[in-house]
Structure formats: structure tokens, C-alpha cells
Amino acid sequence: MSGSVVAVFGATGRTGRFVVSELVRRSMTPIAVGRDSLKLVECGFAERAIEVRRATVDDADSLDRAFEGVAAVINCAGPFLDTAHAVASAAMRAGVHYLDVTAEQASAQATLGTFDEAARRADVLVVPAMGFFGGLADLLVTAAMGSWDVADDVRIGIALDNWHPTLGTRRTGQRNTARRVVVSSGRLVAAPRPAVEMEWHFRAPFARQRVVQAPLSEVILIARHILTRELHTYLSRNALRDIQDPTTPPPTPADGWGRSAQRFRVEAHIRRGSRARRVAAQGRDIYASSAPLVCEAAQRILEGRARGTGSRAPGEIFDATALLEGTGLALEGIGD
Predict the structure, then answer these.
(1) What does the pLDDT look like over 306-323, one tens digit per residue?
(2) Is residue 87 part of a domain?
(3) Is the dihedral of CA 251, 255, 258, 262 positive or negative?
(4) Is 47 helix (H, G, I), strand (E, B) or coil?
(5) How many domains is the chain partitioned into structurally?
(6) Between 327 and which of 125, 147, 226, 292 could a Cys-Cys bridge form, CB atoms 3.0 to 4.6 Å apart?
């Protein structure tokens, strides 16, 4: 097999299907790996000449077989607190790169801390949270920092016009009960309770929104390589209401690519003394948007356009501006 073969674990999930399609679009070769043989058939991978392999996290041998002959593994199967360790361990046994798209702080932190030495020995990279939640904000903040070596304050605002969660998101919410962290006075500390609320003046099409502090995996990534006294993330209240409501339905396709009609905007505001910088990205469907992010990262790694080895945050190893420009997202303030 060639060096562009990528195993997608959790290929039958919503994000996994987008990732498989994005790899094909980039002329890379996906192998669809799933836990359910019937779902692997129902997804129609065989009709698209995409190889399928069955594996489960509680069967190490099945993971080893699933990852034979690949150059990288992308894990799309949440909750990542239950899958990341087993899948990343199998990737290290195979001596190949590992990426995932977790929003879970505890999972991202554990993956970064556990696999650094093994990844260095294998001369590969381990990159958790390389999706909409996590990697996108890390890259936006890195691009905004530019030549700055330190910031006084980093604020990330995420506006969603709605959030129809997948079953995986529902399960992750039930599983992910760890106290979340932020950076305050230069240190990682527990996020305040109750969560801070404020007004955020997004640019069009969202304008003024009520937001709630909701730190996710981007805090873990950014804190690894950017010095800042304060680092906080806020999510629009309407999105939180949607996912907290058990009657909110899952996303439904609204275009030929299978994306939902959901719109999003992510803004990063960085301040150093009296100087301020702002960057933003916007697009459609947070699940679909994880696919170009993680696939662009995987492609750059396999083409030798990433720095170093070991467990790393995206902003540590990539040209943040170039990677963002390769995703097709609508960007503002990038490269200005």
C-alpha cells in the first residue's frame, strides 16, 4: 500500500463518513474501520471501492489487523475517553501517525501525556482534537499570535445557529463529566461554577449573542504552546439549549454533500497590552467541517509538512495559516 493510506476508525458515524469522503476527494486512500459489520455494509463503502475492516477497542488484535499497511489512523469514534487510548496504542504498535477529533479535554490531555515517548520512538506524530472543537481554535489563535511570544488575554467565541447533536455527541456528554479547565492568571485551573455568561458581538450573520463559558479541548491544545495569562472559550447559549434538550433531533442532510443547514462562526480575540488582534472562521455543519481540518492535517503530515514527532498540538507542528487556508473555510484576518 502507498503512503497515503489512512484508516478511519469510527467510519460509520457522521463525522467518520465525512472524513472518508474527504480523503477520497484529496486522492488519498481511506480504509473504513468500524465496530459494526452491518453498518459498514449499510454505509455503502464497498460500492465506492473503499476497503472495510471490522475492529473494536476491546480487541487489540482486531485493531492491529485493521491498521496493517496504513500510514496514519484518524479516530472519529467517541466518546474518546473510551476509544482514544486503545486506538492510539494500536497506532503506536503499527508505527503510524494518530489523529482524532475529540472535544473532550480529559481525553486530549491524556493522549498528549501518554503517547509522547512512544510516538517519538516510532518517529510519528500523535495529534488529538484535530477537528472543529479543539484544532480549529488552536490554529486560529496561533495564526493570530503571529510573531507575538506571549498574550495577556485570549478569548474564543463560538456561535451556532442551532446544534442538532449526533448520538455520539449525546453519549459523549453523558460520559464526559470531568471538571473543565481554563487558563487564569497564567495557570490551568478549574472553570468557574456557575459558568460565566456574557454578551458577544459576533460579526454577521450572527451579530449580538448571549454566550456561556464552555471550555473544550482547544484549551488543552493552546495552553501547551502559547503563553497567555487568560484563556477562555464561550459558546452561544442557544446551542447549549439545543444539546441539553433531549427532544432535539439529530442533524439531517440539507445538501448534496450530506451537510446539515447548521451555520457556525468562530472568533478568536487576542490582546497584548493595548494591541488587539481578531481572526475568524465560518462555515456550515460542525461535524462536516471537522473532515477538511483533520484530513488537511493528515495530508500535511504524510507529505512531510509538519514539524517534529511525539504528541503535539496542531499549532506546534503546522503552518497555521496555510493549514486553515487548505480547509475551504471562510476565513477573516488570516494572513492580514
Answers:
(1) 999 999 999 999 999 999
(2) yes
(3) negative
(4) helix
(5) 2
(6) 292
